[in-house]
Amino acid sequence: MRPIRSLLALTLLGAGALPAQTPGQAPGSNTPTPSGASPAVTATAAAARVARSARTERAPDIDGRDDDAAWKAAPVIDAFRTFDPVEDGDPRFRTEARVLHDARNLYVFVRAHDPRPDSIVALLSRRDVRTPSDHLKLMIDSFHDRRTGYEFAVNPVGVKRDYYTYDDSREDVSWDAVWDVATRVDSLGWTAEFRIPLSQLRFPERDDHTFGLMIMRDIGRLNERIAWPTYRRSRPGIASQFGDLAGLTGLGAPRRLEVAPYVLTRNVSARTANGFARAQQQSVGGDLKYGVTPNLTLDLSVNPDFGQVEADPAVLNLTAFEVFQSERRPFFLEGTGIFAAGQDPTRLFYSRRIGRAPQLAGLVSDPTVRIPGQSTILGAAKLTGRLARGTSLGVLSAVTQEEHVRGTVIEPRTAFGVVRVAQDFRRGETGLGVMLSGMQRDDGDRAVAERLRGDALAGGVDLRHRFLNGGYQLNASAQASRVAGTPAAIARTQRGGVHYYQRPDDDLAYDSTRTSLAGTAASVALNKVSGTFRVNSLYERITPGFETNDVGFLSRADIQRTYAELLWVSRRPRAFWRNATATLFTSHQWTAGGMPLYHNIDAWTDVQFKNQKGVFVEAWVDQWGGSMCDRCAFGGPALRLSPSQNYFLQLTDDPRKAVSPLVAAILTRGDEGRSQLWRVRPLVRLRAGAQVSGELGTRYERNRNATQWVANVGSGAAMRSRFAHLDQHTLGVQARLDYTIRPTLSLQLYAEPFVSTGAYSDVREAVAPRAVKYADRFRSVDQEVEGFNAKQFRSNAVMRWEYRPGSTLFVVWQQGRDQGDRDPGDFQAWRDYRNLFGARPDNTLLVKASYWFGR
């Protein structure tokens, strides 16, 4: 058995690599004043963006009123300016804010004047869901690094949202803090009174602090957005535009200890030899969050429950590429930004590899055996933070247990580790990062060793650099990987869809005796990120042996790609639009050896009108200029692709309406007119009063693909690939209903039935796969291919009650149905849906209760 603990120890080395931190040193204090600005002008501009907090010895009551004596002594912030629809414009209504603090909390009171209080838009929703309401939002950069911040938002009925912002512009919407706010609508408008515990923020230990601060207000019925200080959408970044909040003296050390134990009971369907029965599962666990230092937080999870309450969308994948599914589990979502490195943020770390569905479930042939949907995570730990000198750190370790069914191992015990360190320079205008990710499997079982890699290691460095007053940005990265295992496992890797070393017409050397595989990836991007005209450009190269799918996500190796994009961006209202963007885009791909894979030219425009309706139009041409597809034959010879023409249209309505429809449609024609795909997706968003909202949509797709791969025959240089004409129908329906009783109590309903059928005809063999004309590439063969009729139903109901801040009760009911053995190749919507709902359901009832202890 490989010593798994060695990888866990490796991930902790990141903490020892940190630069020394000098107590009392301000972030960026070694950075000179930007050149080109005179001291007098700089001082004047800074003074206009500075607010002060008043220290109070008596905390105000959090009741939405400003009648506490402490508020009378706090300086007023009132220089708010609009940023949408007009940048740096005069707001219609006055907004005032005051800030207080004591040793444990930051208090903010905001008065949003409105001459028509009865017209204030106040809609209920569950926490972290943005509605077209009025809003007030605080954005606090407690590190004062002008790169990161914490966001706290509320609407007039007290619905809270909180986010962590990083990299000056990105938002981590999964971040949740424990904080208080009270709102009130009165004759002058509405108010919000915030209490932000300092334990929820991160800042260095000093006697005197300055935080970054921005306060934003949305006026729903006018669709006007204002901010203090002036926020300019024409400039890149958000945190770098915050004002300064001075006067923060005597703040306590931002240490915290939070414990959230949980109990979970689950009732699930279990298949037996005589039918189905019910099985009960119970577990206990807990999460701990501890402030190791003022800037570093340790998250621990013991026997964690990482169950998601919303199912992945249904999909039928007929390509050679893995389908990417978004992360939905809270432990991995929080702080995800710190682990994003390089051009593709999931290439080195894709958290859904941890606790993935058992990879060797196909070894179990008994249909009565229940296969777990995911591997059990025994424990996970995460250390994250940002130091005073602008250093960001992220360390993550996790171990999943061995999964076996009646003696057959379907997923081995596995350890994962990730380390990320990034350093900012020039007050965040330049950043340099290093990342390392790895995996070790217990491959003592012979079947496991022959099928799965035993070790994986990947790492890289990345650079971000803004210049010319922040108007231009350079991004570059270099990465390397190595995987190791038995010859059988590495041979499977070479033959897999990421690599296809066995292709008969490439220059790759397939070696069945290899015990390791290594490769590199590199990219450089240069972008103009401000102004009316903007430019994006990229070059990237991935060698054939690059492999990161044990911890990261990589669709394919052996590729070079480049693109160039010219954008025109209008952020000022014109004759008939509020905002508008247009772009011209071209993209090209080759293998690492230079074989052309893809050539594209694309143009699109996106317009939001003054009445809040919108239109998006796009047209593009793919595969022009002799493009080859080295993945279409699933390891067979590369196939020349004929050019295709593509058109897309999307129309949207004003989201503030009670009934807001959306429709999207796409049309694609290729293979010299032999292939055609069209899809239409109508959707309507509904709102009944302030508490009930919903969404009902459908998507229908008709795909006539004249070049659908069905088989490879022969081997080596004699290999031939066979293709058929696929006639495919896909019909899916998505329905959501949210009922919010109050901001802390809500009910969500979600349902998605999905049917996709396909019939094959006209089977042909590629005898001249690189011929210019489509008809010259194939010859007909006598082969029958059975079609398919795949049906899925995913639904759930989630009741969420936050019975006290940070403590939550979930009651979840889930139902799934799958059917694929009826009417292959024949599509009849009503019959297929009737058969789907007649299939045996897999029901799960889950109750989870957690209790938050914190200080």
Helix-strand blueprint:
Blueprint: H1 5-11, H2 13-16, H3 39-47, E1 50-52, E2 54-55, H4 69-72, E3 81-84, E4 95-101, E5 105-113, E6 135-141, E7 149-154, E8 160-166, E9 170-172, E10 180-186, E11 189-197, E12 208-219, E13 224-228, E14 243-249, E15 257-272, E16 275-291, E17 296-302, H5 330-333, E18 377-386, E19 391-400, E20 403-405, E21 408-411, E22 414-425, E23 430-441, H6 446-451, E24 455-467, E25 472-484, H7 487-495, E26 516-528, E27 533-542, E28 559-570, E29 577-590, E30 596-609, E31 614-622, E32 628-629, E33 639-640, E34 644-652, E35 659-670, E36 675-688, E37 692-713, E38 720-742, E39 745-766, E40 778-780, E41 788-804, E42 807-819, H8 829-838, E43 842-850, E44 853-854
Task: Give a brief description.
Residues 20-66 are annotated as: Disordered. With 855 residues, this protein is mainly β.
What general form does the structure show? globular
Report the count of strand segments. Answer: 44
Radius of gyration: 29 Å
Q: How much of the residues is beta strand, in percent?
A: over 45%
Low-pLDDT parts are 1-44
Proportion of residues in helical segments: under 10%
Gap from first CA to last CA:
42 Å
Largest sheet: 24 strands, antiparallel, barrel
Helix count, per DSSP?
8
Helix/strand/pairing category: mainly beta
Q: On the 0-100 scale, what is the average pLDDT?
A: 87
GO molecular function: carbohydrate binding; hydrolase activity, hydrolyzing O-glycosyl compounds
Keywords: Signal
InterPro entries: Carb-bd_dom_fam9, DUF5916
Protein name: Carbohydrate binding family 9 domain-containing protein
